[in-house]
């Protein structure tokens, strides 16, 4: 007998000749056999990995994952500290992401020499088949591209591991976004496969716990046309799509035909498609690239983080960027967007490293038991158990991040949120489901109404008009409280006039900045949206920013000039008000003269009358404008009601405080308490009304905008624009009036003399939407 492994099938015919006594054929066969018989390497012993890479089909991930895995194998085999006595070799086939084809290939892998120590399947359908059968052969299965939640089942798949996280990891992110944007009804459409069915079952449970309803649930096998029509018929707006890339093109071709996209719709898709998946020419659809680009614009994707965002060198002594460069070189410059599985390539790379490290970890325990890795066969449970334990305790830094497996053998990872903007994907956030942390980027992802608390980079005019001067004005008014309480006991007598002027300027300019910004805002709203004639309507869209600057500047200039004239003509100085002398009870020979120091001038009442009169008119006018604009609804400015409330607050407190403090001028404690409390309350209430709701949303929801601004860049709120609707109806009314006027003479001529029809012009509502 010849030493070595069992005789392969292709050589069995040679040995058959022995039994038949064909000596000549036997001698020739022995010569050929000695030439072709596989000899063991003089150095390292080979360990074989059976892999299934889908090079085509629903997910052609093998196009990038196979070169990535081979690159990892080459590096492992060149390492002297990992499996120094062994060489890993990959035996791979194209599964076409088809379980039927994979069944045949699995049979070839198992019943064809050499023996494989581990199996590495790709997509979920194939992995389900392989993992369920592998335990019968005591084989460990390590997948690089399977996301089906059904695979997280240790009873059904006891030897299965995967470097690709479960698809259910997307669902906590989706639910987080639904709650963030306060969506309570969603729709779903799925391809009828186990991976998407189990993912959707998990999503349904999670949204139910979050108080969100799945109002429409559609599925399809190969043709999504009927399912998409049903979504349109049932007015689906927020839609979660679960399907492979090839089916995604079919779905969005139908979406384009049904016009199920645009501002009223938001699509959530899987993020592991190729970046240009919608631009790939597909004979299965009859839509152009332009049609597809229009239909997919603005959709949101959730994707497992598959490439380490940090620049660190992992176990392979390679950073994630160096890995990408090496992979591009191995792909021969092929466009990554046209290469299936390019995003999952780091997972295949780390899968090989996870396997190599696990096998390396088993060498010592096996040697202690008198076993070797090369002794593995499909009946050897002990070696399989050692490999399982080593993989189960894996923990290393790979190019895809930290590689750790949970109790079900699934990889743990963060989720990346992206949005298609202008035909390319842009990162908009990360979500860590284990910690519940949503990290939001500063990209221009959301659009909304013009809000005076918006970022300066986006709305510089509104920020200048409202946010900055309002805050500075409130700070100046609050700062004026301190000099209001200072008297001769705290400062020198010569410094007291300076304190008098200081608090006057703080109050005057602080009022102009804070109230002036609110007054400007409410005046703007009144000017733009309460005029009915066409001339004003035409001007609505062309308000020059300098007018807004000028309004605040004029109010500030008036205060500055009046205070300057007051200070020059009749400056404030100390005056002392004497009260009745008091005799202390202890000593009858001493009388106490109570004195009260005031900041006053020669014509104090005149100056106060001018200032109070001017500012009182501003307060009354502000109240009037706030009342007039309380029912205005517009997308451009959505915080004017809060500004109106702040104006009411300031006006009421000022109109009450001014006369009361004049009456209580001789009662210093009561006067100071009343004035300071009025200033503090008016400033803080204003800040609370305008800023606290926004700060609350910024902290809890990570956004600096009002509830009405929860809209995607390509998907605005489904509420109609009342202002636009009103203008449209008014135009239609005018057109109908013209048509009636044109038809009236002809109708009268066509009537009989005996008949008379009294025709009147219809009376149209002044507000068509009321």
Automatic annotation (TrEMBL):
Q: Does the keyword Magnesium apply?
A: no
* Keyword terms, alphabetized: Cell membrane, Coiled coil, Disulfide bond, G-protein coupled receptor, Glycoprotein, Membrane, Phosphoprotein, Postsynaptic cell membrane, Receptor, Signal, Synapse, Transducer, Transmembrane, Transmembrane helix
Tell me a GO cellular component: G protein-coupled receptor heterodimeric complex
Query: Which PROSITE patterns does UniProt cross-reference here?
Result: G_PROTEIN_RECEP_F3_4
Gene Ontology terms: biological process: gamma-aminobutyric acid signaling pathway
One Pfam family here:
7tm_3
Q: Which residues form a coiled coil?
A: none
Q: What is its main location?
A: membrane
What residues does the G-protein coupled receptors family 3 profile domain cover?
A: 474-714
Region Disordered, as annotated, extends over 709-731
Task: Please report the record's description of how this protein sits within the membrane.
Answer: Multi-pass membrane protein
Q: Where in the cell is it found?
A: Postsynaptic cell membrane
Give residue spans, biased composition: Polar residues: 709-720
- Does the record bear ATP-binding in its keywords? no
Q: Where are the transmembrane segments?
A: 14-37, 459-482, 502-525, 546-569, 606-627, 647-666, 672-692
Gene3D superfamilies per the record? 3.40.50.2300
Query: Biased-composition ranges for Basic and acidic residues?
Result: 722-731
Task: Write out the GO MF terms.
Answer: G protein-coupled GABA receptor activity
Q: Into which family does the record put it?
A: Belongs to the G-protein coupled receptor 3 family. GABA-B receptor subfamily.
Name the UniProt record assigns to this protein: Gamma-aminobutyric acid type B receptor subunit 1
Q: Which organism is it from?
A: Oreochromis niloticus (Nile tilapia)
Gene expressing this chain = GABBR1
